[in-house]
Amino acid sequence: MGKNRIYIIDVTNRDGVQTSRLGLAKLEKTMINVYLNEMGVFQSEFGFPMTRHETSYLNANLELAELGLLSPIRLSGWTRAVKGDVEESFKLVPKLEHVNLSISTSKQMLEHKFKGKYTFKQILSEMAEAVDLAYEKGAKTVGVNAEDASRTDLDNIIEFTEVAKEHGASRMRYCDTLGFDDPFAIYDRIKRIAEEVKMPLEMHCHNDLGMAVATSVAGAKGAIDGGVDAYINTTVNGFGERAGNADLVSTILAIRKSSGLEGRYELAGKIDLSKAWKIANYASISFRVPIPINQPAVGDNAFAHESGIHADGALKDHRNYELYDYTEVGRGHIEQIETGRLITTGEYSGIKGFINVAGKYEMKFRDENEARKILELVRYANVHTQKPVTGDEMMFIARYPKQAREIMTVSP
Asked: Which pLDDT value is given to residue 2?
């Protein structure tokens, strides 16, 4: 048997976009998927298949997977573990192959969210029926989410996992929904579940106590030490409900570079950390939230040295005061800023200005007619995102105009 590994499932396009007062346009969600794929992330939870304003975006992204742009990354949907929701999800997004089904499991939720509507035994039944239906509808993998798992009696979580396994679920997502667990508690709980059920386990940790990355990697360690594969949910720049989720780049660095994990626990796939800055910067622009100055790897001060001792030591050998080199996370480039004449592309741009801007990105068109068709979509992109269209967005639109049009179509 091969060595158990840690898989990254990024949930920016599902949990990250649930951040209060923030959000992403469908084109921006698509670009996040593109960047996650380039980075080598195993899976993106790319949205809500039963939410109608997501339908065009989800179906178009699955087309992009078939065309090879979003490959080998897996695209997974999220829905409640309710048969009606599963039915609707596969009706609206018929090519959906990977899905996570979520249901609350804690006494707190059963009594004060469901108001006694369900007993724990009924929760198990609802979950099992939803898993069966998802496979019946064509799912290839079904993850089962125990919402508020960290506040659920451990024996109940073990039973929940056992039932999920009996019905063919691919893994159980242990949701630390309120960021309640600490690294020591989650390690012990996950290790016991792994040992007793022998089923892959997934960590979904929130940052309410500032420990989302620590609890995520500790839980993954518990899963592997218990003999099963581990999955960690992340979001770019740690976006998510309330205080957010485990940050994608920080989580990867913790597994790759920390003293207790480096070389002992293996990340699945070919994670390319040199894409870290690119995706973090794009998410920052898209969410309209600056990257914190002290954020690991991508913050402005991540590689900044001022005090004499530190500056002297870093100049002699960066390893004196840096755990990893800035080039490893895609930094070190010189950013160019236009300070003279500037032609931009927006919702009212003309063909001459657009061709000028496109030329900067070495975009070529067969003729002016083709350029006009792409310009029209770029105009819509500006209206759609309410932000300047980036070079990568422009090139995506030019390469995949049919899918771009579908992604930007949101009809009430």
From this structure: 65
Residue 356 burial (CB < 10 Å; 0-12/13-18/19+)? middle
Element (H, E) at 224: helix 212-225
Asked if residue 340 has pLDDT above 90, the reply is no
Domain boundaries, position 68: 5-278
pLDDT of residue 269: 93
Task: Return the amino acid letter for 369.
Answer: N
Q: Is the separation of the CB atoms in 79 and 49 below 8 Å? A: yes
Q: Quick one: tokens of 305?
A: 């040295």
Q: How far is Cα 104 from Cα 246, in angstroms, rounded to an integer?
A: 21
308 vs 276 pLDDT, higher one = 276
How many CA atoms lie less than 13 Å away from 232 in the CB half-sphere? 38
Q: Which of 224, 257, 278 is the last residue of a domain?
A: 278
Instruction: Decide: 271 and 40 in contact? Cβ < 8 Å.
Output: yes
Residue 12 CA, distance from chain mean position: 4
φ, ψ of residue 101 in degrees (nearest 5): -110, 130
Residue among 143, 148, 205, 212 nearest 173 (CA): 143
Q: Is 351 helix (H, G, I), strand (E, B) or coil?
A: helix
Of 278, 303, 332, which closes a domain?
Answer: 278
**Residue 1's pLDDT is what?**
47
Alpha-carbon span 127 to 119, nearest angstrom: 12
Give the DSSP H or E segment for 45.
strand 43-47
- Model's pTM, two decimal places? 0.96
Res 312 pLDDT > 90: no
Joined together, the tokens standing for residue 159 give: 């039973």
Q: Is 152 exposed, middle or buried (0-12, 13-18, 19+ CB in 10 A)?
A: buried
CATH number of the domain residue 55 falls in: 3.20.20.70
The pair of three-digit structure tokens given for residue 6, joined into one six-digit string: 């840690």
Give the percent of the chain with pLDDT over 70: 99
* 50 and 174 fall within a common domain: yes
Helices (H), 386-410: 391-399, 401-407
